[in-house]
Amino acid sequence: MAKPKTVICWLGSCGGCDEAVVDMNEVLLRVAAAVDIVLWPVAMDFKYDSIKRMKNGEIVLSVVNGHVRNSEQEEIAKLLREKSQLVLAFGACACLGGTPGLANLATKEDIFNWVYRDAPTVVNPNGNYPQATSSVNGKTLTLPEFYDRVYALNDIIDVDYYLPGCPPPPYSVMYAVNAVLEDKLPPKGSTLAPHRALCDSCKRNKSKPDRLSIKEIRRIHEVEADPDTCFLAQGIICLGPATRDGCGEACMNINLPCRGCFGPVEGVEDSGAKFISAMASILDAESDEEVAAVVDQFIDPAGYLYRFSVPASILQKSRVGKQTTQQRGAK
Amino acid sequence: MSEYEPKLVCFSCKFSWGYLVDEDALSSKIDNWVPLICTGKIDAAHMLEAFKAGADGVLILGCPEGDCHYQDGNYEAKKRVYLIRRLLEAVGIEKERIRIELSIDPEGRRIVKLVEAMRQELAKLGPAKTSPVRERKPEQPIATRGGK
To answer: What's the pLDDT score for residue B125?
Structure first.
């Protein structure tokens, strides 16, 4: 029997997700023996054209990481969807938009002006900006079109499974690969990680007082956090209560609070909103002035609560938010 | 766009607002009115969902301070609204699109007035405008662009 054809591909990605695959170490050899990798741009020399020549559904699994922000990424995502039986959105960017999704808080115009005009290291006297098509010596050159905003993978194509994380830890990658190889997959649309919140498995949970109350918000770099005590009990904002478990507590173990790369827990669309509800109930303040005094210490709430998930957030999808984004995106 | 009609969702706690009158009769006077038991039940996600469902604004009417039937549900709602307003501002949406009032009105007459007043304010605000993010000048030094 022919080995199942598999693709590992990156779109708008830093390469960390591919690194997570390589971090499976010798297990990767077993995986490579079990499947036939037909495309892996980071590690192997295959061409997109060979994928284009394949029959629809010929690829059994496409593991796609990274967000979509330009026409090339969209084209590859759609090509892989057409040729694959299963598409796994791999990593926070593919699942939720990821850190690059924070760019949705600024406009395309802002980004271009900064990168090609205003940044102190830029010298661009002719004011050249990248163009999707330009003509040089009578020949037409093309570049992928840079879209107005960042999209998560499921905004562009139908996605079968999700594995969040920045990057997903190696054991969860193995779990996902095994599930496909052994045909033990959960229902379509599932996230291949536990359903509960990170606090459920956090070792610091025991140190949490019966009733948490925050009188002051402290930032992790301003204090020496106790390595065994619940961050929220120390007044440090930790997104654990609203974030899916399964990361292996990589941040906790090096004394950093959860930043939310695993996205919302099962059944929740917007982890930022859920965290706001949780945080409101542990704020120890009554009068408007007291509430303001504590909350105003929370620097950059949008960036903190949606560090990995602006494109997947409710506000991004709401009419109010959309108008804002569209108007911002318009020239 | 002179015929712009803002849509407003109003949540109110049944313990203080309109409990003496027939809910159906009052409901016919107020569009998108959601009477519920305790404003502390309104999750921040519900507030954002209202925007996703097409609302231009959200009004929350809770019990007077110190009068929550469940001790502190109205305070919880107040804190959530404050946080949500911070969030809206941060993503470039006017914070005036969501507000909370803690008071009492058994006959529910003020609900109609408050909804109408807020609708007029929203009409002045118009559909969501360009964000402060956009208006931030790129000429600003990096320190203020990247947060404090």
So the answer is: 86
Distance from CA of A164 to the nearest CA of B (A): 21
Gyration radius of chain B over CA positions: 17
Complex ipTM: 0.85
B148–A299 CB contact, under 8 Å: yes
Residue A229 belongs to what domain range? 198-299
Instruction: Determine the Cα–Cα distance for residues A275 and B61; give it in Å rounded to an integer.
Output: 22
Chain-chain contact of B90 with A314 (C-beta, under 8 angstroms): no
Shared domain for A217 and A160, answered yes or no, is no
Q: What topology is assigned to B8-145 in CATH?
A: Rossmann fold (3.40.50)
Q: In terms of domains, do A61 and A167 share one?
A: yes
Interface residue B128 vs chain A (CB under 8 A): yes
**In chain B, what residues touch A283 (CB-CB under 8 Å)?**
79
Q: How many residues does chain B have?
A: 148
CA distance B70 to chain A (A): 14
Q: Which of residues 94-123 of A touch B (CB under 8 A)?
A: 105-107, 110, 113-114, 117-118, 120
Residues of B in contact with A106 (CB under 8 A): 133-134
What is the model's pTM? 0.87
Q: Is residue A128 less than 8 Å (CB to CB) from chain B?
A: no
Question: DSSP letters along A145-213, please?
Answer: PEEEEEE-HHHHS--SEEE-SSSPPHHHHHHHHHHHHTT---STT-BSS-SSBGGGT-GGGGGS-SS--
The most confident of the ranges A197-201, A210-214, B133-137 is: A197-201
pLDDT for the residue A178: 82
The percentage of residues in chain A with a pLDDT greater than 70, rounded to a whole number, is: 95
Residues A43 and A172 in one domain: yes
Q: Which residue of B has its CA nearest to A109?
A: B134
Determine the Cα angle at A45 with ends A7 and A76, to 5°: 45
